[in-house]
Amino acid sequence: MKKKYILSIAILLVLSLALAACGGSKQLTMLTGGTGGTYYPLGGQLATIISDNTDMEVTASASNASADNVADLASGDADIAFTQTDVMANAVEGVNSFKDKPVDNVLALGSLYPETIQIVTSANSGITSVEDLAGKKVSVGAPGSGTYVNAEQILALHGLSMDDIEPQNLSFDESTGGIQDGNIDAAFITAGTPTGSVEGLGATNDIVILSIAPEKIDELIAEYPYYAKDVIPAGTYSSIDEEVTTVAVLAMLAVTDSLSDDEVYEMTKAIYDNAGDITHDKGKLITLESALDGIGIDLHPGAEKYFKEKGLID
């Protein structure tokens, strides 16, 4: 009997130590993107920051990125995820890749960094404005993709449609290769700058990135609040010696509405109070000042509480 008692005490002690080691932390899953992209390594750092500064333990997982991430949040298969602001808005509205399947249980935590719409062409193409794309072979990405929707909306802003150009459904690398080979005239590329495929093209060819007029940018943002004004600084690419005014959608974090206000408040506070600890190249772009840029959907009440405390919203 005495041995059984001692054994029971020992088992209880081991269980107590195990629970103490875990700290009773809530385990959460953060969906990022492919291992070769930006979302995955950056997500790993953000997951560590949240885990180190809250009572939650966040694990970053590779995924198929934006649209799939939102779908997994909506189905309860994840707690927090990377996505683009335009994809998130499409999900809430039930349009484009979410046509007739609106999402109503996913909310915004905050914006991270811009993914810039770059309209790239060669310096000898004669194309100097969006209107000049009429009748040209222009890469616009895969139908239904974020790049395709960006191209469609920006063309419409300038009185054009897909019927007014010769649309080419190419990847970024195929697009810049097509410009270099003379097989296409221009390409829409939505990505953080500098973009590797555009850098590669700029190393061998003089390139032009088309500016969008400020009044057109204002019109676009008024119609689609998930866009934000952006500037490509002079020197970003070797042949770009003047800054380019354009627009961007933003990488953002979204959360399921099943998370409590306190949990999301603590996550939001951890990220934006400790953004200076991020060593990834995009870390310097994650700031409190830009945390609400491009957000076209409702904030989670926990995130809203944090931003109110910081004076970003009333």
TrEMBL record:
InterPro entries: TRAP_TAXI. CDD domains: PBP2_TtGluBP (cd13567). The keyword Protein biosynthesis does not apply. Residues 1-20 form the signal peptide. Keywords: Signal. Pfam families: NMT1_3. This is C4-dicarboxylate ABC transporter substrate-binding protein. It comes from Ornithinibacillus halotolerans.
